[in-house]
Input
Amino acid sequence: MKKTYLFLLFVLLSQIGVNGQSPQWQIVKGKITSPWSENVNPSRVLPEYPRPQMVRENWANLNGLWNYSILPKDGAKPSAYQGKILVPFAVESALSGVGKRVGKDSILWYNTSVSIPSAMKGKRVLLHFGGVDWETEVYVNGKKVGMHQGGNDPFSFDITSSLKKSGKQEISVRVWDPTDEGPQPRGKQVRRPEGIWYTPVTGIWQTVWLEAVAQTYISGTKQTPDIDKKALIVSASVENAVKGDKVKISAWDGKSKVAETTVDAGTETALNIANPKLWSPDSPFLYDLRLSVIRNGKTVDEVKSYFAMRKSSMGKDANGIQRMLLNNEFVFQYGPLDQGWWPDGLYTAPTDAALKFDIEKTKEMGFNMIRKHIKVEPARWYYYCDVMGLLVWQDMPSGDLGNHWEMRPGVFGRATDKNRSPESEGYYRKEWNAIMDALHNYPSIVVWTPFNEAWGQFKTEEIVEWTMKKDPSRLINTASGGNFHPVGHIIDLHNYPEPLMPDPRTYGSERALVLGEFGGLGLPVDGHVWQQKDNWGYQSFKSADALFERYSSFMDSLEGLIKAGLSAAVYTQTTDVEVETNGLMTYDRKVIKVPEAKLKQVHQKLYNKSLVKLP
Output
């Protein structure tokens, strides 16, 4: 009897797997993994609500095991599939269970069947994708419901008319991604990873989900705080509105209503916030926001959101040097360059706890800012920055590289703007616009960066002026590290390893002075590296103590630069990424190279308010 029991137990375990793994899915072996990979369960993958800025109750998560095939680009939809892939992990990642490259000559097909929850019956059904890299075509029950180009912005399709009245609904997704063989924004992905360039990411890499809405529904909101006028400028986009429809908007401090107004659908309004509690890294206070479509006195649709009262601006100090200001006060902004890559999930954190971890550690280390470098994160990442109080500088993911870079300001004759094709320009403009729209409501974002180090930089003054006009509520960092143009709010120097700054006597009267990258102190940790040899840092060390001694000297230098006119600095970087070992943490997040408390202690001097005097 005992032997029979053990045999049955063995069979059961072999079928369901250990740590959520199954015969249909196993993490691809051969590379280091983060601690959270053990918690990835194919039947419950990233189950958290994916859009904290606009919440509805009636939704369904579609993450999990889907069918996949990689076929020639000119091939038809497959009649049978090659295996299973764990959505939403990119096909090249270990957590996808596939670990294969795709490339410009191939197509990645996805397929799954889903049941529409009973609570969605009689409603309009939207199919949402948080992020898919790069060109996506979506079919429901064989009918094409839409196409999207862009790897960094969320998109959705109304699939109501394509649904069958009952039974399983088939969803098929066709993805094409040329990586660095195309002109589209692709960040740090390359076919041949080396140095600061990393593994390609193809296909679905954020949560896929269904949402049920009324015939008339709120499809988006825009919230912009104005602390000087003690108001929130707010509007809601309403689909299928009819004459007489109203939108009721209310702001809440916990259970206390602090403001309410009702306006015609599609109308922008100012919601007055008396005695506003200001958001800052020291006090990241968030108000709740409710928006409802009202028809004949009845609520047709309602969403829940949140906002913060904060201001990102610039102004001169007592010496006439332009300074970055937060809530009309000078706050030195200091944080790490955050690439947002994972050894097991590449673009995608294994779990929500993993996604939150980097932000928590950044805060514990005594930073008050994060530069999100050449990547856009899932919505929940920005939500955690809002909640924990981390300022965010958001980069536009680069693409179509090839022009000349001049990292020294004031040098003429070498820097060039990229001569992009109309197709390439169109991809950039469309995606940058979509990214800014998708991220506008997150109060943690205080700076937009259209270009980095001349990577595909083009029509600089035109693009920056457009960005400034689109969002006058934030500062615009024209080109982090150059090429430099007399436009935008910030002049941003890169220098490795020691901290330097643009000369305040030359540049300080017109723009805020920033050290957009420095440091890069490397320390490979045996057993926690992407590969055993050919790892690198801008300056490598053999011990954490030696690294910290050098780092601490940088903090002493920064203190003097702040007095002279420096407004912000960005240290390279949060974690190691693949062969780049410049991180304060290893790529697998299992080793923090310098204790958080030790870093926080040496950072405190940078926030001394007596260093800078305003008029």
